[in-house]
Amino acid sequence: MTAKSRLELLAYCLFIAGTLVMPQFLDEFWLNRVSKYLIYGMLAVAIALSWGYAGVLNLGQGLFFGMGAYMLAMSLKLSSFTSLQQGSDEPVPDFMLWNAEPGAPTDLCCITPGSFLWIPFQEQWFGVAMGLVLPALLAGVLGYAMFKNRISGVFIAIITLAMVLLVRLLVIDAQPITNGFNGLTDLGWFTISGFEFDPYLVETYYLVAGCLAVTLIGTRLLVNTRAGLILQAIREDDSRARYLGFNVAAYQVFFFMVSSAIAGIAGMLYVVSAEFASPTFMDLTFSITMVVWAAVGGRHSLLGACIGAILINTVEATVSESEMFVEAWKAIIGLLFVLIVLFLPRGLAGLASDLCDRLLAGTAKKRPAASTSVRTGPAE
Amino acid sequence: MAEVVFIGLSLGSILLLIALGLTITYGAMGVINMAHGEMVMIGAYTAVWTQIYLGLNLFFAIPIAFLVTAGLGLLMERVVVRRLYGRLLDTLLATWGVAILIQQAIVLEFGLRFFDIRVEGLGPGLQKVDVPPVFLQTFSIGDFVIQPYRTFIIVLTAGLALLTWWLLYRTAYGMQVRAIMRNPSMAASCGIDVKRSNALTFAFGSGLAGVAGVMISGFRTVFPDMGTPMVVDGFMVVVVGGVGSLLGSIASAGLLGQLNGVIASLSNDILARAVVFGTVILIIMWRPKGLFSFKGR
Amino acid sequence: MTKPMLMVDNVGVNFGGFKAVDGFSMIVARGELRVLLGANGAGKTTLMDLISGKTPLTEGKVFLDDRDVTNWQEHALARAGLGRKFQIPSVFKDLTVAENLEVAGIKQHGVLRNIRMRDRRRQLRSMQDVLELTGLGERVDVKAATLSHGETQWLELGILIRQDPKVILLDEPTAGMTQDETLRTSQIINDLKGQHTLIVVEHDMAFVREIAELITVMHMGKLLAEGKIEDIEKNQAVQDAYLGSGGIH
Fold first, then answer.
1. What is residue A202's predicted lDDT score, i.e. its pLDDT?
2. Cα–Cα distance between A142 and A61 in angstroms, integer?
3. Is there a contact between A157 and B89 if contact means CB atoms under 8 Å apart?
4. Which residues, listed in sequence order, are joined to residue C61 by a DSSP beta bridge?
């Protein structure tokens, strides 16, 4: 292990430990806020994985986030108090009654056209499973179609962007089963074996922080596998990788799916802690904002991207006392983003990495005897 | 039926109006300008301002908007875009940042809001531009009702497309631009001032967006983030048509406009847009280089 | 005679009316080193593209070790035993030399089979001889992007050695090299000879004399001559074809 990778490990440990001790310092209101930022951090990890490691810029990551969110929100909507109070044996979402044709039976099977799709979501596990499977599946199909045709670069960006906007419109248009622009609100609580995850409980925070920690460690290990190395090789020169016998499309599809599944999980967690799902998750702006987070944090570093997302959102929250400051903050983000693309393409993580190199070079000079053993010597 | 075709035609001409500038900045310079929509927005605000402060109508706003946005484009090229040539996706990201900056400049009234100074015609609210009275009277030929403003847009778009074609294919400047399109470094070694030419191209493309903004201000409300969906539409037109192909952009704008119009007449606007996105995805998958593109080896 | 390793049977390609390669045939025996000669535009690189599946061929067939591999996808061809070095060196620029060679040495190609940890020490041990041969031993942890032109070419050859394909196509391995660098390259290629079947496209006649056994000459997409180097140099048709471009030098 090189001294640098030791430092990296230390950074991961510190970060995860930091997220886990947060409840000691924050009240429940802030804890709920921070849990949302951690979820954004997860999204940034997904972006860094596909953009930084696979070289695939997905401008429609919000699609997978939104799908995950909607899937779980459907289950949680059915378990909400209002849904159980609609005078039917089965729970029925309130908005379906508002959208129903006069005289339609108040039953999930046929209250509005397509409402039967909701039936299996009465089981919460089904919503969770769909929140994971559907984004991965769609990513698999979309990825296969794109990568098999050797579409790359900006065309992927445009296809994914068109895709998220397309699905967003379909969701809005399917008002009778999605509640259109309003999205799904007034949800029940996420429940695991009887325990209800009230978004303001510290347990809910730990659920989110735990998922983020697992995601970070998991993806970091994944990119460190041989498959991860091959993926980076493909990013550098896909033709060379093909001539070494690798089915390039298979690797790209696989990692595209992993990245989308992470976004799906993030979407579900967001529903747990924010208690709504809305078509705004699939706005163009949101998808690009995720890319901004990853770029500021460092697209080639999973942890860097994650920290970038958390940092930006935390600062944004602290300046959001007045509307004017929020607008000014947006401008600052815009400026910051331009500057980072121009002068710091590797983001904050790149900066940290350079500082690290300088630091290590400094210590190596001070210990001439150990200069050759930097690779094996313990980091002091 | 004729009415649907006419609506499709006017939708297509607006698409083309937005896409024209992108066709040349993306095609000729390899710059994905996400702030193009903001140029449209600035054009629309110029129309608002011309109306409020100069008391002039939409006609006069057209040349003013062209100059304003072309100047802004020139500035943007000098400060940001110039440093990013050859890094296509980075131009997309950096210009997205610029787009936010321009939007916020309007929302915050160039920062004057911090000093409690309000400027009429700026800020986060909605603005409206009046159409000159000549355009309000519809007249009909038989059953067919002609809306003069939409007709004016179609004619103006055709004129601008023609002007662009003339500039690209019939002038020395256009020859240089087309040379840069194919091979920038070769063009440079042939003595073409690539930097200057690129700056002019970017300014011209931005100017076209400004004109589009003026036209759009005549039938839609004007607000700071009106440009975001437009840049998306513009890119779809350009990519479907084939990057760098003027004819392709015209054809794809017509196609997508008609598609939008027909589906909208059969169902609703939301679904029509969704179908357009779906079609765009399929076309890019089927022919990533667009319907009309350079034949290369 | 043993079975041929590579058989190119009457292949051709049509680029919108222009036939870059036209009814070309060639048989290369197991373990042979074949040099492919021809003026610029004779169709050498296009032929390489046809054999290696980069450009789909419109006529003819390609057999690799007795298997019909006509128009196979690149990765399938590679798995069937074909390796290729490009005219413009193609390595993984942002990866280190060691990582480049590690990727090249992976024999299982599936995604899921490669979800396993890497073992740096074992990797370094296994690539020792390649590093020695290519002289990149000092540069293992350097990113490929920072290598010199010659070093990059050697790294690509190293990648091919690690890949260990049956047939290697080398497109101008000495292009842009200094004399010393060329010398090392010919050492590497001579080392490859025997264990692999090699097809080398080359212009540098000094280098060709150094390595060549049999030479195939292409002209206007067609086979012009084939034989030992002495015969080729004397061949009237070859001399005629080259007169326009200044002869073989």
1. 92
2. 12
3. yes
4. C9
pLDDT at B119 over 90: no
Please answer whether residues A253 and A140 qualify as being in contact, where contact means their C-beta atoms are separated by less than 8 angstroms.
Answer: yes
Backbone phi and psi for residue B146, each to the nearest 5 degrees, phi listed first = -100, 125
Amino acid code (one letter) for A90: E
Q: Could you tell me if A5 and A223 are in contact, meaning their C-beta atoms sit under 8 angstroms apart?
A: no
Put simply, the answer to whether B90 touches A341 (Cβ < 8 Å) is yes
The rounded distance, in Å, linking the Cα atoms of A165 and A177 is 18
User: Is B268 or B2 the better-scoring residue by pLDDT?
Assistant: B268
Q: Nearest CB to B90: which of A165, A328, A345?
A: A345
Looking at per-residue pLDDT, the higher value among C41 and A306 belongs to A306
Least confident range of A362-366, B89-93, B273-277, C192-196: A362-366
CB B96 within 8 A of CB B35: yes
Mutation site for B-interface testing, chosen from A158, A327, A342 by largest number of B Cβ within 10 Å? A158
**In which band, very low, low, confident or very high, does the pLDDT at B294 lie, cut at 50, 70 and 90?**
low
B280 alpha carbon, distance to own chain's centre:
18
Q: How far is CA B265 from CA A167, B4, B5, B212, C189, in A?
A: 21, 7, 10, 25, 69
Instruction: For an interface test with A, give the residue of C111, C118, C167 to mutate (most A CBs within 10 A).
Output: C111
Q: Is pLDDT of A324 > 80? A: no
CB contact at 8 A, B98 and A301: no
Supply the DSSP string of chain C, one letter for each residue.
-PPEEEEEEEEEEEETTEEEEEEEEEEEETT-EEEEEE-TTSSHHHHHHHHTTSS--SEEEEEETTEE-TT--HHHHHHHTEEEE-SS----TTSBHHHHHHHHH-----TGGG-SB--HHHHHHHTHHHHHHHT-GGGTTSBGGGS-HHHHHHHHHHHHHHH--SEEEEE-TTTT--HHHHHHHHHHHHHHBTTBEEEEE---HHHHHHH-SEEEEEETTEEEEEEEHHHHHH-HHHHHHHHTTT---
Nearest to B288 among A149, A284, A337 (CB): A149
- A279 φ/ψ angles, rounded to the nearest 5 degrees: -60, -15
Cα distance between residue A73 and residue B134, in whole Å: 53
Instruction: Put the strands of the sheet holding C222-228 in their side by side order.
Output: C82-85, C167-171, C197-201, C33-38, C214-219, C222-228
**Distance between CA B217 and CA A166 in Å, rounded?**
26
Calpha distance B192→B215 (Å, rounded): 35
Q: What is the token pair recorded at A380?
A: 């002091």
pLDDT digits (tens, 9 = 90+) for A239-260: 999 999 999 999 999 999 999 9
Of B208, B191, B190, nearest in space to B200 by CA: B208
pLDDT > 70 fraction of chain A, expressed in percent and rounded? 95
Beta bridge partners of C69: none
Amino acid identity, position A78? L
Closest CA to B6 of B246, B225, B226, B258: B258
Task: Average the pLDDT over C164-191 and give the result.
Answer: 87
| pLDDT above 80: residue A89 | no
Within an 8 Å CB–CB cutoff, is residue C52 touching chain A?
yes
Please state which of the ranges A257-266, A273-282, C2-11 shows the lowest mean pLDDT: C2-11
Going by C-beta distance under 8 Å and a sequence separation of 6 or more, which residues neighbour residue A269?
A: A35, A39, A42, A207, A208, A211
Closest CA to A362 of A345, A380, A376: A380
Distances (CA, A) of C224 to B168, B253, C221, C232, C235: 45, 52, 9, 10, 10
CA A83 to chain centre: 29
Query: In this structure, how many other beta carbons lie within 10 angstroms of the beta carbon of residue B9?
Result: 19
CA–CA separation, B96 and A210 (whole Å): 33
The two three-digit tokens of residue C230, written as one number: 């002495």
How many residues does this entry show for chain A? 380
Residue A325, C-beta contacts closer than 8 angstroms, at least 6 positions apart: A319
